[in-house]
Amino acid sequence: MADISELIADPAYKAGMDWLAQGNALEALKSFEKTVRSNEGHFIAWNNIGVLLHKANYVKEAENAFKKALSVQENYLDARINLINLCIDKKDRVAAVRELEILRKKDPANPELISLETAVNQVAGPIQVREPPVCTIVTGTLNRPKLLKNAIQSVIAQTYPKWEMMIVNDGGMDVSHIVNSFNDPRLKYFSMAANFGAAHSYNYAIYESTAPYIGYLADDDILYPNHAETLVNALEKNRQFGAAYADQYEVSCDLNDGEYTAIHEKRIAYSYDFDKIYMIAYLNYIPHPCLMHRRQIMQKCGYYDEQLTALIDWDLLRRMSFYTDFFHVREVTGEYYFPRNKQERISNMMEKEPDKWYANRRRLFSKRPDKPWDRMKELTFVLYCDRLDRAVLEQIKYLFEGCMYPKTVHLLLDEYNPEAVTLLKELGMPDFRFHFNSSPCGLKPTLAKYLRSYTDDGWLVLLYERIPLDEAWFKRIMEQVRSQILGLYQQPKTLEQAALYTEPQKIMTILGNNFQ
């Protein structure tokens, strides 16, 4: 986001301010509109456009301008206050109360709070203090009004009443009339200035929400009435878990005229108990609508990655898994849909744009969340060879492309070779280091020398034979990692090929001292 000084230095914006100083509102409006055409993120100009349109009684247009300013900079309080005043003028009590609550949360000492509250009271009576929500349902929407209505209705029907639903329109057609038709203050609607993507919509909704538990619902899916109550109860009763998830039906159907028709099949595609290693290194087996997590877990793992255009749900769940286990509730609580005739989900990128798909996948697996982790450590692969050849290069390549668990790779070459140094540098692999002996020493002395300087807090895997690394080998390593996490792993007593050494210092004992 641009610095404030850069925004106010914009030539078109400065021209608009000059016109305002001269009392020419029309020319000022034109200048500010020119500003946002060249810089859509100029939230100050958007706010000024809203002020001028509001004064000219263009209420709807002014409201959109204020919301665009807030979609760019949610903490811009001038735009928030202006939006509250606009809601008061058009006697929209629900919207005014909602925006007033957000202002109070973001700036509880704001001097205008009292006067704004008084103004809202005069329009629609005293503000009623509601019991705060316990769970937030986050929904992003883009040009699917008929399906959105069904999604909202399914949330309204929840048996658990202490929820709020944050609906973020990601730059699509206005659907505020659909939200307002339910006349429920627990529904909170936000409209983005442009299509920023699903990750941005989710982050915006989470920032604006207040509940300690957060769940998700796509605009084309539905929740059963038991969903919120089931997962809130699971988290309340199992406080050692940072997240909980239920089962849901995957529905195969057709999409016609904006609605799902002709249901072909309904099945539970995923119903697996939580496996930390499987989530981190293999596959996402938790559909996003099935999930509810504690807000505080995001303080550790972070929010949605807005640089990703696919796999954003797996990316978040994968990062969460470094810090917590998930509680699985074997109960069906909703439906998510896959139309056969029109594949519109982001995940279809794998077939349509494979290059982009794998670029997203590489970014996802490259992440290494901040430590400490929950019962986990990095893997350090130590690969010994007497000379660098194609077989060794294939081993290195597989470690980075086939092993999706966080790792570093150390290559121990028995003798210095300048050509090998050049080749290894050209690989450009992250988290890859290589070491050379000044003269040939053999496996055990080379390994002992490396271990004396080893200071990382990780688990070692020794690869000193030229065996092909494949899926079966990776599965074996991951089983050893899983056993260690569950407290079932026993330290190897020999230099076994591809064994996991959870206490690397003990390898020196295995090696013995006769080679030093």
From TrEMBL:
<feature type="repeat" description="TPR">
    <location>
        <begin position="43"/>
        <end position="76"/>
    </location>
</feature>
<keyword id="KW-0802">TPR repeat</keyword>
<dbReference type="InterPro" id="IPR011990">
    <property type="entry name" value="TPR-like_helical_dom_sf"/>
</dbReference>
<dbReference type="InterPro" id="IPR001173">
    <property type="entry name" value="Glyco_trans_2-like"/>
</dbReference>
<dbReference type="InterPro" id="IPR029044">
    <property type="entry name" value="Nucleotide-diphossugar_trans"/>
</dbReference>
<dbReference type="InterPro" id="IPR019734">
    <property type="entry name" value="TPR_rpt"/>
</dbReference>
<feature type="domain" description="Glycosyltransferase 2-like">
    <location>
        <begin position="136"/>
        <end position="240"/>
    </location>
</feature>
<dbReference type="Pfam" id="PF00535">
    <property type="entry name" value="Glycos_transf_2"/>
</dbReference>
<dbReference type="Pfam" id="PF14559">
    <property type="entry name" value="TPR_19"/>
</dbReference>
<dbReference type="GO" id="GO:0016758">
    <property type="term" value="F:hexosyltransferase activity"/>
</dbReference>
<protein>
    <recommendedName>
        <fullName>Glycosyltransferase 2-like domain-containing protein</fullName>
    </recommendedName>
</protein>
